Amino acid sequence: MRLKVGLVGLGEVAQLMHIPTLHKLQDRFELAAVHDVSPSVLAQVADHWKIEKRYGTAAALFADPEIDAVLILSPDQHHGEQARAAIAAGKHVFIEKPACLTAADLETLVAAEAASNRVVMVGYMRRFAPAFVAAKQELENFGPISYVRVRDVICEGPWFFNQTDTVVTPNGDIPAALIDESRALRKAMMDAMCGADAPAIVRRGYEVMTGLCSHSLSAMRDLLGSSPKRVIGAQLSQNGEQLTAMFDYGSFTAIYECLIDDIARFDAGIEVFSKNKRLHFRYNTPYLRNLPMTLEVQESTADSNLVRTLGPFHTDAFQIELEAFHSSITKGAPNRTPPSDSKEDIELFSKILAVAKSTLAG
Ligand SMILES: NC(=O)c1ccc[n+]([C@@H]2O[C@H](COP(=O)([O-])OP(=O)(O)OC[C@H]3O[C@@H](n4cnc5c(N)ncnc54)[C@H](O)[C@@H]3O)[C@@H](O)[C@H]2O)c1
Q1: Which helix (H) or strand (E) holds 45?
Q2: pLDDT (tens digit, 9 = 90+) per residue, 215-248?
Q3: Does the beta carbon of 13 lie inside 6 Å of ligand 1?
Q4: Backbone angles phi, psi at 318, to 5 degrees
Q5: Beta pairing partners, 355
């Protein structure tokens, strides 16, 4: 079954990932309508991809009876409200991560989804990467875990995609009142989660946590089967762009390290150890599609040491998550990343933030 899809928000992730991916999956999706608050972005993206239906508001797109599903690709602070409006209009909804910035907004979204019979999926594409799925299978016969290392040590997307693509950005044509409203909404949400008097390092730290760390922390939870029992320690530095956190998983410890800087590399991944086994997979920048990904599994005995490499896999994680969204809608396949799943992430962010704030205070 081919689904008619509408997009809300046509920025980097829409232009670089979702639109080309929907185009590749033409047998399953028809990109039928778009909306962006920037008229110039709306016109240029719609012209480029030959999309006829261009809506001036998200509400108008949601009211289109021909649209089956929408992708919410707008800034984080608008996700909850737009997703609820789309659900109310009877649409299936895909929301880019983070589902919401605050626990309260997420709770309302979870309730709206529960009261509907629509598929609502959060875009944690790293959890759909073939190497990640293979790692989950390997862990079924791995033996007791002894240690876990998780990391995002990266520079930001433009360094990569400026070499391969052109992204159209608003040319100063977003109405000033909308910009002010959006900023005020984001500030109120940051105040609610960080505290109105939180220093800049804590605010930036929370932005990095919801923006970047959410990928790894949700993948860690999915891979290991649960959230950590406790945050042992957490420290923010570099104006909030460096976070180191240590998690208590009862019988083992997991460590997470995050750093955003200007060194051109994307070093993200997860490594899991047992007494005689190790598995490791590494994510590359999401902004270049179809980069290869491998899973390495090492097993040592008294007289042998075997390293197996699964992959390289080239199917892009963004494609697999949209295929999963389609299967959930058309075949009732399980939805692995509903908004209720994101509650555990936001709870963990809050715990990390609390420990990091107390560390700063000390
Ligand atoms: N999965 C990933 O790896 C990944 C990567 C990048 C971004 N994202 C997520 O995707 C979302 C968008 O990020 P981006 O990098 O594309 O941002 P961006 O700033 O490049 O683009 C945002 C677009 O939304 C438009 N916009 C602003 N307010 C809007 C509103 N109220 N309604 C509709 N459109 C609005 C802007 O004009 C702009 O074109 C964010 O939630 C981000 O966290 C995910």
Answers
A1: helix 39-48
A2: 999 999 999 999 999 999 999 999 999 999 999 9
A3: yes
A4: -65, -35
A5: none
